[in-house]
TrEMBL record:
UniProt enzyme class: ligase
PANTHER family: PHOSPHORIBOSYLAMINOIMIDAZOLE-SUCCINOCARBOXAMIDE SYNTHASE
Protein name: Phosphoribosylaminoimidazole-succinocarboxamide synthase
Keyword tags: ATP-binding, Ligase, Nucleotide-binding, Purine biosynthesis
Sequence similarity: Belongs to the SAICAR synthetase family.
Highest taxon of the lineage: Bacteria
GO BP of this protein: 'de novo' IMP biosynthetic process
ATP-binding found in the keyword field: yes
Length: 283
């Protein structure tokens, strides 16, 4: 049972099903760091499970019960428990479906140069972290290594066909709007996010993780102030600390201080607890 190992997730194959395991590994600047964030994988898995149940969109999640899979004898189930999803195997659509509701990150950088985001013209006078007049769909290619590449909607149509591209754009914008509206009612601004989809025949399914702090920018609504970068419920603490060191972002990354690890863990947990109204606890 050899996994396909990503930066922060391991995937095991069982005929027409997959086992998605969200590890506690954390990456930044395209490097997996030597220190993990305790319970990060379990928190992200609980957030995805929450959204799969709430959004009422066809998805790939079958069960959180590991006993449904023929795991090899001697498998340490305790390590997998709480961070694993049994999912349907799909033909993955090779596009990252990115939706942006606020002007941040690479979108803000592009806007400053050309008043566009991924080629889409926006109104003049916006500032960093401005709420956009309407959410925009800005697809990207899925890259095995390195950064995903932003592409135009027209290029997306060339890659996967116009009909599927239009379905994905409509569905992505709808999911984002509904998710962002719910999150805002619970004190979280979802500034942007990326969705992934898979197909089984003509059936289109939402896959992978959904509206988590690793696939989205989560900002605390009570601290939001346009015109600057925002605090966030994700690994921004890690990125900020690394940026203040002399690490060149090419060599092996340094180990994280315990204080940075602890604060990052607390941010992930806070995001889950605000969204779900439940207290995060693990045995």
């Amino acid at each position: 049972m050899t996994p396909r190992r990503g930066k922060v997730r391991d995937i095991y194959e069982f005929d027409d099903r997959l086992l998605f395991v969200a590890t506690d590994r954390i990456s930044a600047f395209d490097h997996v760091l030597p220190v993990a964030i305790p319970d990060k994988g379990r928190v992200l898995t609980k957030i995805s499970e929450f959204w799969f149940e709430k959004l009422e969109v066809p998805h790939h999640l079958l069960s959180m019960d590991l006993s449904e899979l023929p795991l090899p004898e001697g498998t340490d189930v305790d390590v997998l428990d709480g961070r694993s999803m049994v999912v349907r195997k799909t033909n993955v659509v090779p596009i990252e479906c990115v939706v942006r509701g606020y002007l941040a990150g690479s979108g803000w950088k592009e806007y400053q140069k050309s008043q566009t985001v991924c080629g889409l013209e926006l109104p003049a006078g916006l500032v960093e972290s401005s709420k956009l007049p309407e959410p925009i769909f800005t697809p990207a290619t899925k890259e095995e290594s390195g950064h995903d590449e932003n592409i135009s909607f027209e290029r997306m149509c060339e890659i996967i066909g116009t009909e599927l591209a239009e379905r994905l754009r409509t569905l992505s914008l709808d999911i984002y709007r509904r998710g962002a509206e719910y999150a805002l009612q619970h004190g979280i601004i979802i500034a942007d996010t990326k969705f992934e989809f898979g197909q089984i025949g003509d059936e289109l399914l939402l896959i992978d993780e959904v509206l988590t702090p690793d696939s989205s920018r989560f900002w605390p609504e009570d601290q939001y102030e346009a015109g600057k970068g925002q605090p966030s419920f994700d690994k921004q603490i890690v990125r900020d600390w690394l940026s203040e060191t002399d690490w060149d972002k090419n060599s092996a990354p340094p180990s994280l201080p315990e204080e940075v690890v602890s604060r990052t863990r607390a941010q992930y947990i806070a995001a889950y607890e605000r969204l779900s109204g439940q207290t995060f606890a693990w045995k």
